[in-house]
Amino acid sequence: MFATSLELLRFHWVAYTIYALMIVSVIAWFGWNLTRREKVRSIIRIPFYGYMAFLVMAGVGHHIFTYNAIPWVEEDIKRHEIKPDRNYLIEVADHKWKMPQMRAKKGEKVMFDVRSKDLTYGFGLFRKDGTMVFQMQVVPKHKNTLLWTFRECGNFDIISTEYSGPAQYDHETGKDLMFVKDGMVVDCNEKIAMKE
Amino acid sequence: MENKSFKELLINGTDFDAESLTALQKITLRAVVMSFVFFGLVALEGMIMRLVETGPSSPLPKMFSHPDHFFSIMTVHPIVGIFGSTYQLVFAAFMFLVPYLTKKPLYSLKLANFVWLSITIGTALAWLAGFIWHYAPLYTLYWPLPADMKQFSLIGGFVFVIGVALIMIGTLGFIYNIYATIFARTGVHKDKTMKELLISGFGIDGLFNLVYKLLGKPPYSKEPALSLPVVAIFRGTVDTFLDAIVILAAGILVLVYLVSYATGFSWDVHTIDSLLYKNFFWWGLDLVADGLVLIYVAGSWYLLATIITGKKLFMENVARAALLLELFVSWMVWSHHLLADQPQPEMMKLISGEMVTAFELLTQGLALFITLVTLWKARPLKFTPPLAYLLGGLVGFGLAVPAGIIQADMGMNRVLHNTQWISFAHFHMALIVGLYMTLYSALYVLWPLVTNNTKLFSTKLTWAHYWLYLIGGIGMGAFAGMAGLDGMLRRHLYVNGEFNTWMILAAIFGSMVLIAWFIFLANIVLSVGLKGLVGIFKPANNSIDYVEVK
Fold first, then answer.
1. Is the Cβ pair B411, A73 closer than 8 Å?
2. The domain B1-21+383-543: what is its CATH number?
3. Which uninterrupted H or E stretch holds A94?
4. Which residues of B touch A66 (CB under 8 A)?
5. Which end of chain B is more exposed for a tag (fewer CB within 10 A), N or C?
């Protein structure tokens, strides 16, 4: 249902905004009616067990929905059984990445294996407009793997998505020293990508 | 009051007489005063961070954008907000309410006095560690960052750990005082056994009553030993205790490494497994967010609904049983904080992170339902400040809880973890709007009891505070949360105004919260007067330790 995280986040934005407006309106309506002297006719009667069933369905159904609608959930759970098209090993220590220029073709599955030698970092890919493609935590002395199928092409920047101390930034300018411009390039043109 | 000049009101207040207060009233008010002082500080810190993130258009001096300074603020912000302000206010309210509700004296007034002092000094020390020494491992204390002496100063670490330890020691003092009061077999509990009190405290009698009803038997307990709000206080305090132990243990670990560094031993920080530590720490820390806050809030809603309506709580047995259910839920949900940690076992993510966490929708939804129906059955009600703030609190959690549940999902977490979404749409909404609106409601309910019916300076100011705070809190949470959906990270420094529009909007609404705080403060100061304010901190003339219900 959602090919990219951008589509998912746009849907989420609309759905949650509608919900937020609804819950604020319902409580406001409720508050107003609490103070009215006239008898209030219920617009809708929700039985207690119906309400409970709705909450259970919302809580569990939400996960069932995302499992079926978001492609990376199943991939993530089964990542150890899936053969990736490309593997990238990335090391990080002292707030510095050690990584190759990463490339892939649209539709390819890429396994990112990120290892930290000292602190907890984050590993996130971001579009040029600042929106997030994905992220994961990088726990030191552990194998942190993430399998991702690129369903979109373009140049993506890499940002450490977890705070690892002020040394991540330039002391004077505040510039993020772990920011990697165009750290991942995903090619739309299959022919050009094949030549590589 | 009409004849009093502004100067007179500022000095003497409306009709507040600090000399007439009991020791317990004074202790309660001392903690309340410190809580709101810390609230002002935390609101100011929040505004500083918002303005820094607006980038070049920020009107603040450049020093605030320095990473050392910025992350020091980010480290102390939750310590001051959650412990210095919220804990103080909640503990003060409960140490006043438990004697009031059980009609028994508080176990120890000296201990109650120690609690607010310990938390105040501890918070101040933790704040100073950030302000002076720029110790900034954030509240998450992800191992081994707090012991990273390449980035932080030793003295800063010591002061911070001692500060947090003092807060936790104060917290343990509160817990001891509450339990010793609840389980004292005096007054109305003279003939109760410890077993009866414990069964009631855990909500087991409510569950038995429900089961007996289903089986067609007479109720297990017609008159439960403890009233429902006391059950909630007891239950929430179990989580408060476990959380304090975990934070203290983490503090001792950091201290051990700091001492080893200071003495030149420098132990390998990787002797401690970061993932195991993260699980342990989040298990404890999550007992604040998903344990005691939700339980204390549910209990407060029930109490406020019954006081506002003067009626019995709707479905009281279900509410008691739900508090028991929340006991298990709150202990098993920590893994939703580790959904982005790939070495974390998938089953833990699935069961603890997703499925059990989803139960919070059920327990909190139930509390919301019971509170709303209790209010509805008593209509028409007057739209008083306590009712208005209570409804505001319900709105806050109505917005914040689903936002958290949405994020506690493996698919959503991949693109929402550590973004401003979780920070603002979820926990700032829960704390600023949900929790504080509930606490303000309690404050206006308790005001006559704690201040001996002191007249508030202005009802208009109360309403101005209400609307500014409600709109400001929701607006700030919504706009900063939207920045998160656009990719803005929560523990990151942006100096180029990358998310400028959202941050400016969030800052505008955030400033409404800050202005609301000033209005609230003005209203309170003009009610009690500066003399009264000083009088609160003077020893009490009488030692009556609880206020009789009239």
1. yes
2. 1.20.210.10
3. none
4. 409-412
5. C
